[in-house]
Amino acid sequence: MPVGEGLRRVAAIDLGTNSTHLLIASVDPQLRTFQVLLAEKSTTRLGERDPDTGDLSPEAMERARLALRHCRELASSHEVEEIVCVATSAMREAPNGLAFLQEVEHDFGLKTEVISGPEEARLIYLGVLSGMDFAEQPHYILDIGGGSTELILADAGDARALTSSRVGAVRLQRDFIRQEPLEPKRVEFLRAFIQGSLEPAVEKVRRRLEPDETPVLVATSGTAMAAAALLAMDRPELKGRLHGAEFGRAELDALVQRVLPLTPQERRALPGINARRAEIIVPGLLVLQQAMEMLGASRFVISDRALREGLIIDWMLRHDLIVDRFVYQGEIRRRTVMHHAHKYGVSITRAERIAAFALDLWDQTRGSLHQAPESSRQLLWAAAMVHRCGLRINTSAYHKHSWYLVQNGELLGYSHSEQRVIASLARYHRKSLPKKRHESWSPLTQVEKTLVERLSLLLRLAVAMDRRPGGAVQTVVASCTGKELKLELEPIDVGDDLSLELWSLQTCGPLIQSAAGLSLRSGLLRSRQPLAV
């Protein structure tokens, strides 16, 4: 059965303290991955409860009803086979929460499970795990919600600690903030309160660390995404998707100092965040800042996957579409690249052939043509697999379209920097070399430019060796000595002189000379004929 057939659709609804989130996903049973078809958020503010009884207010319940009706209709229109709906902190604590959910089930047919704090943390872990490569390093995962904050210690093998603390942006705003901008004494009180609330969780995760381990801090959900959006305004290279972007503690501290003196009206004018988020951004930022200090974290990485995506992964696990979640996570880079290639109709057989040539060239010319780190080898493979995806849009300038599709696509498991490198390798595998005026070139850091300058030559040569859809080259032997790069090709058919491939390689000669200062010679392996200049 071809990939793409037999897709299954499922919806996940997260009824949170501040917002109600809907995600509709298309699950591919063969690739064992999913694609997000629709993601929507409604501000329902369930955390605004009756101050005396703690009940959900009539206004909050009505907002939730409207949002859930909307979610139900959208899910039905996408013909999902199941809707998974969970409620978190606000519903756990409200005395009338269960009665409200019974009404929702009666009115809309939505059966909603009220999940515990640790279960919420487990699902957040699965969501982050599905979109980020943990490699061999432990990670802290910090999810600052409206009513609770989940802190997780995990690695690619297990979730070592799942914690949930009753401190969140909506709860802090509701309980402790009466006048804004905040006075210094109120800020100090909030910091102390947050520290006391998070202390048991921080102690628990730190006890589970080995003595020589330094975890990466991953921040996810509303507060983290809002902070990233504000910080990205000063980082032009982060234009677009924020997943995988990394920010330093000093950047966050400066942002907090900039936001604290603002009135609510002034915060609503900040770019990149909506009006409701502007109302609760101050306590949310204070939680993030205090957590970083307590964990001793100097930087944090953004994940745009969390609870909703975790619900999809959990559904896949329960339906035997993922046998082992850790094997699933370990293969995330390969799966997301394959998914991207399939999505744009790339010939996988041909892409894999070009990728094999590119990796052979990487191995044989390391230390001579390039000095790239080991990690770059996988980036070259990814670029080789997706470099032709732009053909779906246009043939003559497909490399530019490939850059755009990769740059703005969803390559899970790759950092923001790695995704930029992959996109740029796809961009510069043909036609001109990089130029300062190119939109794809100027945002790159110097380290990224150095990688692209060398590795794009390898991809260019690999593509040149694969001019026929069926393939004609069996192997390539490369050597780089002095000022010469020599390539010897072995044909699949012993009677084939590979004239098309050798001609194609010769056209690369001037660019190799210009970019690397090397003359290119190519010919048949073990051939008595002289190598072509």
What does this 3D model show about the protein?
- α16 (398-407) packs antiparallel against α17.
- The longest helix is centred in the middle third of the chain and has 24 residues, at 184-207.
- The protein has helices spanning 58-77, 89-93, 97-108, 117-129, 169-176, 184-207, 222-232, 249-259, 264-268, 275-295, 307-318, 325-330, 332-343, 348-365, 376-386, 398-407, 416-427, 446-464, 499-516; strands at 8-15, 19-28, 33-43, 82-87, 112-114, 139-144, 149-154, 159-165, 216-220, 246-248, 299-303, 473-481, 484-491, 519-524.
- The strands form 3 sheets. It has a 6-stranded mixed sheet with strand order 8-7-6-9-11-10, with helices on both faces. Strands 3-2-1-4-5 form a 5-stranded mixed sheet, sandwiched between helices.
- It is of the alpha/beta class and 533 residues long.
Spatial arrangement of strands, main beta sheet:
8-7-6-9-11-10
Structural class: alpha/beta
Query: How many angstroms does the end-to-end distance come to?
Result: 47 Å
Binned, the helix content reads 40-55%
What is the CATH architecture term of the largest domain?
Orthogonal Bundle
- Overall geometry comes to elongated
User: Do you know the CATH topology of the largest domain?
Assistant: Hypothetical protein af1432
In short:
With 533 residues, the protein is an alpha/beta fold. It contains 19 helices and 14 strands.
List the helices and strands and how they pair.
Elements: E1 8-15, E2 19-28, E3 33-43, H1 58-77, E4 82-87, H2 89-93, H3 97-108, E5 112-114, H4 117-129, E6 139-144, E7 149-154, E8 159-165, H5 169-176, H6 184-207, E9 216-220, H7 222-232, E10 246-248, H8 249-259, H9 264-268, H10 275-295, E11 299-303, H11 307-318, H12 325-330, H13 332-343, H14 348-365, H15 376-386, H16 398-407, H17 416-427, H18 446-464, E12 473-481, E13 484-491, H19 499-516, E14 519-524
Parallel strand pairs: 1-4, 4-5, 6-9, 9-11, 13-14
Antiparallel strand pairs: 1-2, 2-3, 6-7, 7-8, 10-11, 12-13
